[in-house]
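The material for today's practical consists of a large collection of protein records. Backbone structure tokens are a discrete shorthand for how the chain folds in space. An example says more than a description, so a record of this kind follows:
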Amino acid sequence: MAVIGFDIARREPYEGGERFGEVGAYERIEGVAHYAVDPNSPRNAAVVDLEHAQRGSDGLVHFEGDVSILAPADAARASGTVLVEVPNRGNRTMVRLCNRAPVELEPTERIQPGDGFLFRHGWTIAFCGWQWDVPRSPARLGLAAPVAVEAGGRPLRGPVQLRLQLHADTERVALTDQHVGRVGEHTPLPVADVDDPDAVLWVRDGLHDPPVALDRSSWRFAGDSHVELDGGFRAGRIYDLVYTAGACPVVGAGLLAVRDLAAFVRDGDQAINPLAGRTRHVITAGQSQCGRFLRTLLHAGLDRDEVTGRPVFDGVLAHIAGGRRGEFNFRFAQPSVQPTPGFGHQFPFADAPQTDPRTGQTDGVLARTDPAVKVMYTNTASEYWRGDASLAHSSVVDGSDVEPPANTRHYLFADAQHGPGMLPLMDRSIFGSRGGNAFDIVDYTPLFRAALTNLAAWVADGVEPPASAVPRWADGTATSREDALDRLAAIGGFARPDPSQLARLAPLDLGPQAGKGVGRYPPVEVGEPYPCFVSALDDDGNEVAGVRMPDVSVPVATHAGFNPRHPETGGTGQLLEYLGSTVPFPATGVVPGDPRPPIAARYADWADYEARVRAAAERLVAERHLLADDVEVCIRIARKRFDALAAPAASA
């Protein structure tokens, strides 16, 4: 039955009635969707523990989730395509990314319009709360997930794992994801018994070192949401905590929420559907955590309407997801958690079915997806350097190139880090991490909105997007991470990781009930690591594969998708998983130990540099990797970087 009710809490002009080109004003709708799903339906069978969820008198499982909608006030001016966003940790991020709006250090209720790109083109955007562990608020959308219970009504209990790696010494740690975001952005699974003698805390120094269990008397739970260690948790060391959780949300209900909201905005009951009659096509998009969420949804075959069985999405855009999935559909999953190895780190990685010789398993991410659905993946160099993105288009047997299915496209945004880069150059983040190099400043947002536009045209008009652009062995644009690091060794002062400390994916033994989504922790690697690779590099150390921003193909610096941890934060030789590097070229003269020609020797002045950047941008327009209107955006991006890195005399 899917969405059975939609409560509108607020309906008002967006941004005070601001007008966006010919589309005009927008309205904003804030509400709550009420879902009811059949636990006995074969189309819901992939959701772990749905059969254990409490049911209503109608025999259905009921839950609710937050929804935000931005739509043209004049329905006749809407494009007819609805973008269903999977919010990242409850934050509405797709408008910010597409509209190049400022990054907010603290979540707010406001959805900043930025340059209005989506609105000028008539997009309708529906943000779907899906995540049980997001603290719900006007600023953050979440889900009140159903709870899995035993026969007597007592909540299911069982083991949960959390990996911790801190940037500073501390004695007390919250049982939340410390890797990305802030404490308080992730509701932890409560500890069932703070005195549990079977809870275990392991520690290791290197990523691949064997873990050592700490004496149970040396650490303790502080309430049901914190842990303390005698002598303190040390920066850079890797801790794995396994404890018994006292509650069991049906995490996969979030997958059903996104599926069913997408079906609702197109075909839902007109009496309660605020977008009734407006929707011809539905594209869903998510970035990072949410791109991996969409890969999980597709792999589980949960993209079909519960009643009709037809696909609910016409297009899917999974951004910076790499080749992984995540903690979105197994018992005691924590969607906010990133680095903890588990179900989301497992085969399959590529779209079409492959056979993994390590396990004998045959599967593909899109094995259960209708081939009519158009699927686009956009990744940065960071997802390749963490060891998984190349698996999305290569063989798990030997790492050789695999041609993606005709209904998919894969693009690498060359030399970019996980999130769009920005000036000024800095090596410290607001989350306490510090890099061995300055963070990557490549801003790839113009490439992303061209990709979204291409996907919309593919869905609505059948216009094929550009061919996939990724590292390939066949054309010499791929190389190993070790070889790439060797090439960068010539650049003095370029901090590099220890190759032995690079992350990898390998088959995991998650216990005898893993096939039912019930894990045993910590998992154990049981086979050889999967092969992975990155883009080959040019003479300046920049990537040659993928789609390059004009200020990358006409460079003033060497950029990389990795950044090693600074020694003061511990974990020497390891990577900061989501951050890249920028090492500027010398401004004027030759620098000892740096073979790269200085900026002043490459470009006569700003006019010379601008002409080359413009030519590069126009080539991207011809290739349809950039919108014509964004040529000037790329010029402005390049000007800021030229002014920041070139000698003052050259930029005058």
Q: What stands out?
A: Residues 509 and 524 are 5 Å apart (CA to CA).
